Input
Amino acid sequence: MDVELAHQIEAAESEYLRSRVQNLAGISGNPYGARVFSNGDFPCFQMNASPSPMFNRIYGDSARDP
Output
């Protein structure tokens, strides 16, 4: 796979997940314990009330910032 295409796919996935978690965090009382934050330049997504590991991740490119 082309490296640039791989970065574009990862960026699209990150933006999609950001949108989902931000919308869940916006539900009155935040029942999912959702939050979006950063660890340096890397976007992080956390959900306390979801068994899915999809929501608890950090996105980044370690090749550029080892």
Q: What stands out?
A: The two ends are 21 Å apart (CA to CA). The CA atoms of residues 15 and 43 lie 9 Å apart. Residues 3-58 form one domain.
